[in-house]
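Risk register update: the risk of archive-format incompatibility is retired. Evidence:
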Amino acid sequence: MKFHVPDMSCGHCRAAIEQAIAAAGGTVSVDLDSRTVTISGLDAARATAVLAEAGYSATPAT
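Archived output:
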């Protein structure tokens, strides 16, 4: 699943998201340039919730 994360802008953001998703049992690929993340191992609702708990709003990306 790919999500747009508009508030993600730096290496710290990348690390925070990677850590949060890994702690929830998923894997993530981060693209800072397009401000998108691709998450596997979690359903969409759980991935969105984990991102929100980490402080990042996310919407499904196409």
